[in-house]
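Quick note —
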Amino acid sequence: MKDERETEKTHEKASKKRNKKPFIIAAAVIVILLTVIYLSVSVYFQYHFFMGSTINGVDVSFMTADEAAAVFKNRARTYYLEIKERNGKIEHISAEDAGVKMLEDFNASPFLEEQNPYKWLFNIKGTHTYIDSNTSSSTAEYDEALLSARFLSLECLDESKMTDAAPPDIIYENGAYTVGAVNPGTRLDTEKTKELIREAVTKLTGTLDLEASGCYLVSADDTEDSVYTELVNNLNKYAGVKITLTFNDELTPVVIDDTYISKWMSVDSDLNIVFDMEAIEAFVADIAKEVETMGQTRSFKNSYGNEIKLSGGDYGWWVSKGKEAEAIVENIKSGKDVTRELNYLQTAATHGTEENNSDLGNTYIEISLLKQHLFCYREGELITECDIISGGNQNPTPTGIYRMRFMFTNYTFNRPYFNRTVGYWMVFYGNDADSNIGLISCDFRNDFGKTTYLYNGTHGSIYIPPDSAKIIYDRIPNDIPVIIYKTY
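Predicted structure written out below.
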């Protein structure tokens, strides 16, 4: 039994060896066959270019060196250069335009020798670009006279048709600023462009993209930088400012917002934000027409109960237009909302109301030249009144509404016609305290009132008794109105 089992095992081993032998033989045959195919293809690619091979942009896939040379020779006769320009424009140069000829000594063999034929399996779908960068061994040659003549007819090289780069438009729409379309212009580096065209022709290159080749003096990408981001951010910040101009709650405030600001701002060629100062000053002038009162005629109810018309003098609201325009620009540039009063060269007591448009307020000095009498009111209360002596016929006291400018005590006059020291000197007419007109505390005369002024008047100033002068000096501030009239 034991011998029989051993015999069976021997037969099984022999059977297995016989069954494996066909597979081994088949595998060996396949390996040999693949090796032969691989070597055969490698031999093929010793004399042919790989798939996807180009020389100076010309497809030479599966060609021999001679076949590639023949293609170039034929290409020289049918050559056509496409020049891609900015804004989608295309121009062409043909073989005839440039007198293109194939170089007789052109040889594609050096390019073929660069490829390793045994690596064909790893380059089935590869791209193999060969570029002849040596101009002395270029693919073709051209006629310089013909090509130069063609340069003259190319619009892209026509200086008169080139446009310079310009900043993109800054657009204000729907309450916000944005950057418009980029405009880099079409001005070329002409020498570089001509040189690249010559190079393309010698290598029979089919396309020359002027943008991609960096022929334009200003790249489209150069205009899209952070400068415009910062510019737009500042414009939007400025336009978002709100300036509220108030008038002591007596007139409706004026609000300056983006409606005005967006019209006053622009951007110059250096990308600076500039303000239209003329427009801003015109805006301020319009406001001034509504609030200025200096020099205007006013209605006034005097202490005798009569409604009279007052004109002349320098009292009243007077807007500092230039300073106000500058202040508006500074407020805008601050980027912050602000509420403030206008900038004035001169102010008055009040802006008045719809019922009473007078700006005189209720603290003032009233002088009737006809009655030769003075009234002084403080916050509506009569604090003193007195007879006076005003200027005579030769030197009359001016009528109108004036502003109390200066107030002095123990003042010494050194005028040819008046040389003495007085207790109080209060100027309301003119800027020079020594030569202009005002109230003089008079302790050297006692003939106040009546018609004294007609035959023994002053040189324009007004004499008042010392006690009234002291009350006025002590209780009345500067800048109050001094109202002088002749009528009842």
